[in-house]
C-alpha cells in the first residue's frame, strides 16, 4: 500500500474560492489588475520596501490596510508562504451611498437602508444582506474598519444576495448618518433601552435602520446621531437578539407598515 501523503494540488482552487491572495507578487498583481480587495493584512513592524509599496498602493486605491502579527497571518494562510502579506478579495465591488439612494429614487420608493455599526461577524453580515434582499431594502452600509467586509464567507452566508443588494463602505458611520439626514432619511437605531417601542416607530417613510455590533451594540456617537432609538419587545429570559435577527425584525416591521398588512 502506498502510504505517501497526496500532493496538495487543490490549494490554488481553495485560494481562489475563499478570496485569499497570498505572497508579494500575487498581491501586487491583484492591485495592478484592479481586483476589488476588501482588506490587505501586512506583517506588523516589517520595513521591507516591497511591503511598503504594497501598503501605499493599496491606500491610494482606498483599500483598508491592517497591521497583523505573524500568528494572524499564519492562521489565514493556505500556502504557508505568505511572505508577510495576505489580501482578501471582495466578493463583488462596493457601491456608493449615492448609488443606494438613486436605486430608491428610480423605483419611486422611500429609501429603506440598513446601516451596520461595526458588525464583525461575517456570518451576521451575510445574514443581514440576505434579509435585506428579501425585505426589498435598497442597500446596506458598513464602515471600512472594524467591520466584516464582502468576503467569500459573507457571500456564501448571504445565499447569493450580495449579487443583488448594493453594499457601500464608508470611513465614518457618524458622518454617514448626518449625510442621510441631509437627504431626508430618518435614522432608527436598535437599542435595548430605546426611547421608542418597535410597534410605535413609523418606518413608512425614508428610513435607515442602524444595527450595532454583536457585543456592544451601537457606539455612543452613532446612538446620539439617531433620530430614534428603537427597542424590540422581549418577553423571555434573554434580553437581546442576535444582530442579524434584530435587523430582520425591524426590516419586516417596515415591510408590514409599507405594504399596509
UniProtKB/TrEMBL annotation:
Domain called RNA 2-O ribose methyltransferase substrate binding: residue spans: 20-95
Entry GO MF terms: RNA binding; RNA methyltransferase activity
InterPro entries registered for this protein in UniProt: Alpha/beta_knot_MTases (IPR029028), Ribosomal_eL30-like_sf (IPR029064), rRNA_MeTrfase_TrmH (IPR004441), SpoU_MeTrfase (IPR001537), SpoU_subst-bd (IPR013123), tRNA_m1G_MTases_N (IPR029026)
Biological-process GO terms, alphabetical: methylation; RNA processing
Entry GO CC: cytosol
Keywords: Methyltransferase, Transferase
PANTHER family according to UniProt: 23S RRNA (GUANOSINE-2'-O-)-METHYLTRANSFERASE RLMB
Family, per entry: Belongs to the class IV-like SAM-binding methyltransferase superfamily. RNA methyltransferase TrmH family.
Protein name as annotated: 23S rRNA (Guanosine(2251)-2'-O)-methyltransferase RlmB
Encoding gene per record: rlmB
Amino acid at each position: 500500500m502506498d502510504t505517501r501523503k497526496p500532493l496538495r494540488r487543490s490549494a490554488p482552487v481553495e485560494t481562489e474560492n475563499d478570496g485569499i491572495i497570498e505572497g508579494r507578487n500575487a498581491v501586487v498583481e491583484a492591485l495592478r489588475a484592479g481586483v476589488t480587495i476588501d482588506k490587505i493584512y501586512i506583517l506588523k513592524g516589517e520595513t521591507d520596501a516591497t511591503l511598503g509599496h504594497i501598503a501605499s498602493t493599496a491606500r491610494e486605491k482606498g483599500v483598508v490596510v491592517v497591521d497583523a502579527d505573524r500568528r494572524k497571518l499564519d492562521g489565514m494562510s493556505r500556502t504557508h508562504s505568505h511572505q508577510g502579506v495576505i489580501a482578501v478579495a471582495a466578493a463583488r465591488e462596493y457601491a456608493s451611498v449615492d448609488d443606494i439612494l438613486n436605486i430608491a429614487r428610480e423605483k419611486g420608493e422611500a429609501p429603506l437602508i440598513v446601516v451596520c455599526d461595526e458588525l464583525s461577524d461575517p456570518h451576521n453580515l451575510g445574514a443581514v444582506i440576505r434579509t435585506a434582499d428579501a425585505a426589498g431594502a435598497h442597500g446596506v452600509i458598513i464602515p471600512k474598519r472594524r467591520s466584516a467586509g464582502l468576503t467569500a464567507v459573507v457571500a456564501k452566508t448571504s445565499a447569493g444576495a450580495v449579487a443583488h443588494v448594493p453594499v457601500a463602505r464608508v470611513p465614518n458611520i457618524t458622518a454617514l448618518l448626518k449625510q442621510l439626514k441631509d437627504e431626508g432619511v430618518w435614522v432608527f437605531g436598535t437599542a435595548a433601552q430605546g426611547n421608542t417601542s418597535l410597534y410605535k416607530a413609523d418606518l413608512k417613510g425614508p428610513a435607515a435602520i442602524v444595527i450595532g455590533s454583536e457585543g456592544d451594540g451601537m457606539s455612543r456617537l452613532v446612538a446620539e446621531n439617531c433620530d430614534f432609538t428603537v427597542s424590540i419587545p422581549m418577553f423571555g429570559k434573554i434580553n437581546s437578539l442576535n444582530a442579524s435577527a434584530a435587523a430582520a425584525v425591524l426590516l419586516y416591521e417596515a415591510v408590514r407598515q409599507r405594504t399596509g398588512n
